[in-house]
Amino acid sequence: MNPALVAATAVICLAAPALAQTANQGRTALPAPPAGQALAQAGLVDAAGQTIGTAAFIQTPSGVLIQLRLDKIPPGVHGLHIHENARCQPPDFQSAGGHFNPGGRSHGLLDQGGPHAGDLPNVAASQNGQVWADILTDRVTLGTGTDSLFGGNGTALVLHATPDDYRTDPAGAAGGRVACGPIMRMTQPR
């Protein structure tokens, strides 16, 4: 396997069976973060405007930890990206704009000119339509500066219909946008 692909996907941890059992019972609560950390949250909706889950964003010394908990997702692998506008108007979510890319880079974790700051690893939905993933990215911040998720028009987390190929500009051939959630600040950075 390509070492870059391994590095690109190593940050995803699918939930243990016990967590999947909890999700099956309709509980999608995220663990409580340490006190005093910068936090953000996105409530994701599908094309019908129905809430399908949440993503918590926690600033850590190594980057931003994204804890994703979704339900009612088509089984299989899906592209996941941070987009440049904090607007999620169903059914197509085009209001979220393109990928968050303050550095003006090419798309793709496997592209020499990439990645966009908003490029994230693919996530897998189980046969019962659940996604439980923890993703760490050092390309964005909940603080200030050009890589902040709260500058300009804000940002949104978008789930795509098919996997990101990690190469093709502008969006990795990841298909339509099936879910979206504006990323909203919960606490101020220290």
Automatic annotation (TrEMBL):
Residues 1-20 form the signal peptide. Keywords: Signal. It comes from the Bacteria. The keyword Signal applies. Residues 53-183 form the Superoxide dismutase copper/zinc binding domain. InterPro entries: SOD-like_Cu/Zn_dom_sf, SOD_Cu/Zn_/chaperone, SOD_Cu_Zn_dom. Belongs to the Cu-Zn superoxide dismutase family. This is Superoxide dismutase family protein. It comes from Azospirillum aestuarii. The lineage of its organism: Bacteria, Pseudomonadati, Pseudomonadota, Alphaproteobacteria, Rhodospirillales.
